[in-house]
């Protein structure tokens, strides 16, 4: 049995999700008449309490066009050291958007208002003025850590004071909302722009949605087209998103419970340590190089990624059963004793 914990992006669409896809009425979304895409965008507006939304092919595109539509080339933006937009979007902030990056270090992924104030640059003849604060919730490289609605509201206040906007990489905001049992809007009312992924924990094959003000999304639509992200009968994909929001979103807490169980099991049965997971991402601190352990895992059909010299990441998703969870633990114990 292969147990794939590399990411929550590895899930395959379920038969019911595929049925929803087949049944979806479609149009041509570039021409603006795909009813299922429109229904998905409206659903996201309702959940986020934002004015408008646009369906995009990936989280990377959601982030980059969201940021493009809020900034001008040369502006400085504040980005956390471990952020996805900095690590895994192949320099798009520089290549596509021409931005100056002021990165900041944090313990859990979220800056304090004071840190934002310190990193902010006022515009002048000499300095690239800061126009945007970027946040990530949950934070991938910080082990799925959550930014609480309270932290968001404090960051909103400082952003207002400084006159800057906020973009949220909410690829896994679903997990934060599920873990704290809060509506999505409790987080998003404090940001100007949010990108929500459907193809991570929600388990769809493709797609993300960017939401914000009507004006912001109008600009983002132009960016989507410019980058070749305009899709035609994309209602087929949007249907999987609508299905997932209804049927998968309420079940995310089960992934979180399994992640916690796995982390506790490792702490109790191996010499390795795992910080208590807040959502569906488990980090494992090892006593040997992570690449070596990852290879040993692979040879036992247990898949996970190294996430540092002696750290590995295991991500839980709806296609990991209790049986797989127990089996993954057994295989890791064997490896830890070699
Ligand atoms: C936090 C975060 N943001 C954005 C993305 C980008 O999503 P995509 O792979 O759909 O471009 C990912 C992907 O794993 C992610 O983990």
Walk me through the structure.
The protein folds into two domains: 15-247, Type I PLP-dependent aspartate aminotransferase-like (Major domain) (Aspartate Aminotransferase, domain 2, 3-Layer(aba) Sandwich); 251-336, Alpha-Beta Complex (Aspartate Aminotransferase, domain 1). The longest helix has 18 residues, at 252-269. It contains 14 helices and twelve strands. It is α/β, with parallel strands linked by helices. It has helices spanning 15-23, 35-48, 59-68, 84-87, 92-95, 113-119, 149-162, 173-180, 185-188, 214-226, 235-247, 252-269, 290-299, 322-336; strands at 3-4, 52-56, 76-80, 100-104, 130-136, 165-170, 193-197, 208-212, 281-285, 302-303, 305-306, 311-315. Helix 2 (35-48) packs parallel to helix 11, helix 3 crosses helix 10 and helix 6 (113-119) runs parallel beside helix 7. The mean pLDDT is 98. It is globular and about 60 Å long. The strands form three sheets. The protein has a seven-stranded mixed beta sheet, with helices on both faces. A hairpin with a 4-residue loop joins strand 11 (305-306) and strand 12. The structure holds pyridoxal-5'-phosphate (PLP).
């Amino acid at each position: 049995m292969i147990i794939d914990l590399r990411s929550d992006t590895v899930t395959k669409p379920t038969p019911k999700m595929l049925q929803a896809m087949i049944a979806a009425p479609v149009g041509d979304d570039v021409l603006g008449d795909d009813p299922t895409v429109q229904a998905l965008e409206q659903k996201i507006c309702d959940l986020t309490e934002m004015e408008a939304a646009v369906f995009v092919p990936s989280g990377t595109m959601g982030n980059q066009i969201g940021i493009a539509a809020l900034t001008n080339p040369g502006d400085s933006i504040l980005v956390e050291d471990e952020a996805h937009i900095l690590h895994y979007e192949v320099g798009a902030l520089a290549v596509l958007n021409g931005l100056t990056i002021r990165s900041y270090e944090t313990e859990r992924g979220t800056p304090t208002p004071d840190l934002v104030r310190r990193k902010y640059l006022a515009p002048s003849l000499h300095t690239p003025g800061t126009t945007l604060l970027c946040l990530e919730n949950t934070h991938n490289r910080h082990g799925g850590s959550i930014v609480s609605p309270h932290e968001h509201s404090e960051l909103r206040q400082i952003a207002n004071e400084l006159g800057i906007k906020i973009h949220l990489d909410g690829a896994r905001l679903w997990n934060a909302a599920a873990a704290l049992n809060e509506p999505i809007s409790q987080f998003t009312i404090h940001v100007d722009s949010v990108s929500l992924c459907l193809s991570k924990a929600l388990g769809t094959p493709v797609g993300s949605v960017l939401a914000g003000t009507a004006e912001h999304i109008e600009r983002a639509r132009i960016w989507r087209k410019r980058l070749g992200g305009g899709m035609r009968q994309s209602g087929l994909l949007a249907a999987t998103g609508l299905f997932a929001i209804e049927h998968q979103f309420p079940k995310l807490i089960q992934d979180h419970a399994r992640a916690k169980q796995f982390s506790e099991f490792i702490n109790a049965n191996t010499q390795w340590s795992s910080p208590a997971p807040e959502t569906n991402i488990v980090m494992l601190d090892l006593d040997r190089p992570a690449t070596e352990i990852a290879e040993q895992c692979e040879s036992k059909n247990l898949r996970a990624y190294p996430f540092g010299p002696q750290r590995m990441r295991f991500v839980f998703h709806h296609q990991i059963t209790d049986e797989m969870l127990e089996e993954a633990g057994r295989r890791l114990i064997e490896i830890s004793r070699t």
